[in-house]
Amino acid sequence: MADPLWQAVFEHPFVRGIGDGSLSRDRFEHYLKQDYLYLIDFSRVFALASAKSRTLENMETFATLLDATLKTEMELHRKTCAAFGIPAQELTKTRKSMITSAYTDFLLRTGYEGELSDILAVLSPCACGYAEIGQRLGSGKLPDDPFYRDWIRTYSSREFLDLADWLAEKMNEHARGASAKRREDWYRLYETSVRFEYLFFDMGWKKEGWPAAVSPS
Predict the structure, then answer these.
(1) Structural domains for the chain
(2) Which residues of 97-124 are buried (b: 16+ CB within 10 A; e: fewer)?
(3) Which residues, in sequence order, are CB contacts of 116 under 8 Å at separation 6+?
(4) Model's pTM, two decimal places?
(5) Which of 22, 38, 131, 199 is least enclosed by beta carbons within 10 angstroms?
(6) CA distances from 84 to 14, 34, 51, 133, 178 (A)
(7) How far apart are the first and last CA of the chain?
(8) 34 with 207: CB under 8 angstroms?
């Protein structure tokens, strides 16, 4: 992943801060709350992908991914937040930030309006990007902070890498023999998701919600 957009993601101070343990706790808390809300809609997109799959094998895989996201990945967030003194009820009361709203709206609109290949194009950056980050951060000395270590281990796990590889392979299957116009459409969807991945980490770093003048009460 040598693309300049990806390099901006990998080099973001939020990502580097998890890797070396220097990320401030308040930034990580803000990110965790927003990512919890993000994962709810991310799961909905998995459900839409299952519904739009043409084979039972793909339906089963997306259903498994839905279950794993709801039970495993979101449970990591709940446990970490609980350790920070943030109860599960507070997570459910958290309002989406402007970036979280924009990103999830983009994913859901693609899920409802697009074909399975479009869904794969917008899902891949999150899964593949986190797998790459996990691999990069996990290849060096892990931070002393147990929460950052757990985060890195989750996204560098074999299970998560397998998910990223499966999504990439399914996208490649659709791309074989597709027209140049269709491949360009998929790339634009993919590129938008990569930009949102950067903005999501940036939101965590800046602890952004909404501009004060239009902030939800």
Answers:
(1) 25-206 (1.20.910.10)
(2) bebbbebbebbbebbeebebbbbbbbbb
(3) 49, 52, 53, 54, 58, 174
(4) 0.92
(5) 22
(6) 18, 15, 37, 24, 48
(7) 40
(8) no
Task: Give the residue-averaged pLDDT of 6-10.
Answer: 95
Cα separations in angstroms, 47 against 44, 72, 113, 178:
5, 16, 14, 25
Structure tokens, 24 = 């401030």
So which residues are the catalytic ones? 126, 197
Q: Tell me, what DSSP letter sits at residue 95?
A: P
Length of the chain: 217
Let me know the angle formed at the C-alpha of 48 by 90 and 134, rounded to the nearest 5 degrees: 60
The structure tokens listed for 12 are 């973001």
